[in-house]
């Protein structure tokens, strides 16, 4: 009786934490002004944005797996009716959206790691640094 509202609150809390971590990661990401360029080599300092992005990814994963298991157990194929087909299609759609979110979060988080002098940067013909 009390488990369903409790699960909703837990899932909502984890989703809010994941959103807050994503927002904090975006606000603390490496800025263009942080790039140090000495004419030939460049250096990009790391920020806590990478760790915040990974924490958001973990919270999102926990919420996706636990939520899918909860929904699947609630609308299991034991019950007859059309609910299971709709539920299954919504769960598949949810996992597709989750996959897109994982790719975006992973890519954004990986761009905030520290790079030492000479790693990932090179100079172009006009003397402009290009970050790989």
Morphology call: elongated
Rg calc: 21 Å
Give the overall average pLDDT.
Answer: 77
Helix content: 55-70%
Q: List unreliable stretches of 5+ residues.
A: 123-132
- Largest sheet, spatial ordering of strands: 1-2
Largest sheet: 2 strands, antiparallel
The secondary structure category is mainly alpha
How large is the count of helical segments? 3
The sequence of SSEs as H and E is HEEHHEE
SS elements, strand count: 4
User: Beta-strand level of the residues, as a percent range?
Assistant: 5-15%
How far from one another are the termini? Answer: 55 Å
Write a concise keyword list for the protein shown above.
single chain, two-stranded antiparallel ribbon, 132 residues, two-stranded antiparallel sheet, 3 helices, mainly alpha, 60% helix
Folded structure, characterized:
The protein is mostly helical and 132 residues long. The chain is 60% helix and 8% strand. The chain has three helices and four strands; from the N terminus they run αββααββ. It has helices at 3-27, 49-74, 83-110; strands at 36-37, 42-43, 121-123, 129-131. It has a two-stranded antiparallel sheet with strand order 1-2. The chain has a two-stranded antiparallel ribbon with strand order 3-4. Helix 1 (3-27) packs antiparallel against helix 2 (49-74) and helix 2 (49-74) packs antiparallel against helix 3.
